[in-house]
Amino acid sequence: CTQNPPCRTFDYDSSSHRCRLFEADLTNGAIIAMASQMSIVGSVILSASLYASMYNQSCSACQENRYQTCSSTTNMCQCPGNSYWNGSMCLLQLFENATCSRIDACRSDLNLSCMINSYGEFTKCLTGINLFTIFVYKNLRFIGFRYC
Q1: Where are the alpha helices (DSSP H) in the chain?
Q2: Based on CB atoms within 10 Å of each CB, which residue in 53, 117, 138, 143 is the most buried?
Q3: How far is CA 109 from CA 7, 23, 42, 114, 132, in A?
Q4: Comparing C-alpha atoms, which of 15, 88, 13, 10 is closest to residue 48?
Q5: Closest residue by Cα to residue 143 from 17, 37, 39
Q6: Per-10-residue mean pLDDT, the chain, length 148
Q7: Residue 55: CB partners within 8 Å, gap ≥ 6?
Q8: Which has the closest alpha carbon to 123: 97, 93, 92, 100?
Q9: Model's pTM, two decimal places?
Q10: Exposed, middle or buried, 74 (CB in 10 Å: 0-12/13-18/19+)?
């Protein structure tokens, strides 16, 4: 998972020895209680301090960094795929029907766009519209989104 930046959440069942990685974090999934005492969920919690000194800097600033990548077109550190810059850090792009507040907040690779209502306000991610520290939780399971 450390080699795959969008993978920010895992669940592990020690009875089956099954570990799954999720391309999501705690802002776009759900953790539900399970009857099994053998289940563990972990999630990477990110902070703006991981990004502030690198974003839009020369690529030398983000070498060997999982949270920003070097843009071959600008030669600057940028958010990796399926994420967007919110002004202070790279957040994962949102899935269908999620509430969005920026034009680039939705998963474009899934043909999602942040809809704008008649008042010019961003609303939610919908399909087909093109617009201009680790914490560990025991006895829980992460649900709701794609595997990495």
Answers
A1: none
A2: 143
A3: 16, 13, 26, 13, 16
A4: 88
A5: 39
A6: 72 86 75 76 84 91 87 93 91 92 92 91 82 47 58
A7: 68, 77, 78, 79, 85, 90
A8: 100
A9: 0.72
A10: exposed
Instruction: Answer for the pair 145, 19: CB distance below 8 angstroms, yes or no.
Output: no
The ranges assigned to domains in the chain are 1-45, 46-82, 93-132
Name the β-bridge partners of 91.
Answer: 84
Q: Tokens in use for 84?
A: 């967007």
Q: Is the dihedral of CA 50, 60, 69, 114 positive or negative?
A: positive
From the list 63, 55, 59, the residue with the least C-alpha distance to 75 is: 59
